[in-house]
Structure of Putative F0F1-ATPase subunit Ca2+/Mg2+ transporter:
Amino acid sequence: MDSPKKQPNKWLHLIHIPFQMGLVIFVFSYLGELVDAYYKNKSQINFKIATLIGVFIAIYLVISQVNQINKK
């Protein structure tokens, strides 16, 4: 009478993704802001570049996690 283990809902795995994306983007933008403050850049180019890198990394992490969930 052993019933198979009930698999958790795939949507429950996706709940933490917005928080993860926000954290990654925040950390990269904060680091860019620190670099700009250290070198006294008024154009904030390091902030903009670091934020874009953070966005691309966050998107990559989301895509890889969704692909991993779909394989299960």
Observations:
- Helices lie at 10-13, 17-39, 45-71.
- The CA atoms of residues 12 and 38 lie 41 Å apart.
- The chain has a mean pLDDT of 90.
